[in-house]
Write a structure and sequence with these properties.
Elements (H helix, E strand, L loop, with lengths): L2 H19 L5 H14 L4 E11 L2 E13 L3 E6 L6 H14 L3 E6 L9 E5 L2 E2 L2
Parallel strand pairs: 3-4
Antiparallel strand pairs: 1-2, 2-3, 4-5, 5-6
């Protein structure tokens, strides 16, 4: 399965969750629901994955954690904020660089319509 196919399943699951629950819950609630939905779709999902920073030749455990890593290919960062900020995108760009993953999804569930809360990042560049 390719990244775009995985991303489509993730986005559809986010739509389903948002349709049922709406905005206003904690990030951890949406994370648990997304893990449930993606696992039921047959995808492998790892949550709160530690991500070391490699500086020079040293692996430093700086506390970076990926919310969800789906099929070891797609990073999902979950938010429940009033609006996404540049720092949220910078966080995902950093995770993509450190992990070597090509595709990341930034999903903010605290929006009236989930469509406006989903951002795709590829190799550090925001897709229009």
């Amino acid at each position: 399965m390719f990244e775009n196919e995985i991303a489509k399943i993730i986005v559809n699951a986010a739509y389903k969750i948002h349709r049922q629950l709406g905005p206003g819950l904690l990030e951890s609630s949406y994370e648990a629901c997304l893990i449930y939905e993606l696992s039921n779709s047959g995808l492998t999902v790892a949550s709160q994955v530690g991500l070391p920073l490699i500086y020079d030749t040293v692996h430093l455990n700086c506390g970076y954690r990926i919310d969800l890593l789906v099929e070891d290919m797609v990073i999902v960062e979950i938010k429940a904020v009033n609006e996404l900020q540049n720092i949220h995108q910078a966080q995902l760009i950093t995770y993509l660089k450190l992990s070597g993953c090509k595709l990341g999804l930034l999903i903010n569930f605290n929006v009236p319509q989930i469509k406006s809360g989903i951002k795709r990042l590829i190799n550090g560049y925001l897709e229009a």
